[in-house]
Amino acid sequence: MAHSGAPELTVDAADLRVAIVAASWHTQIMDGLVDGAQRAAAEARADATLIRVPGSFELPVAAARLAPHFDAVVALGVVIRGGTPHFDYVCQAATDGLNRVAIDSGKPVGFGVLTCDTEQQGLDRAGLEGSVEDKGHEAMTAALVTAQALAPYSLG
User: Fold this and answer.
1) Average of pLDDT values for 93-102?
2) Among 20, 21, 49, 120, whose Cα sits 20 to 30 Å from the Cα of 63?
């Protein structure tokens, strides 16, 4: 987490399984987000599985289906503002849906959905060479740290 005051999180997640659900729009940005998430999982020794969906609107339903089978889910997507309210609807649906998945399943859902006014904002956060942030890595780390913290309080 690149901003001032952000925690330095580390985790050994060798015993955890995590699903990465990634949208497909804006390929260059998505490739960076997925790479960052996979790198964070590998660094933590977590077992990560990648599932692709068409767009950010589809992330919640995929996360809901996968959550029972994994210790955590990481949702990755990017929505770039255009000239219509579509941006607002997709961002709100993805955010609300992913939050609902986490609460209903009791499993952490790492939020790696970039909601950007411009493509450059997405590139700056995608963990690519020259990016100032790596939101895929951050979302994975947050999900794994939370899953590990909740592990002693198993759902059943």
Assistant:
1) 98
2) 120
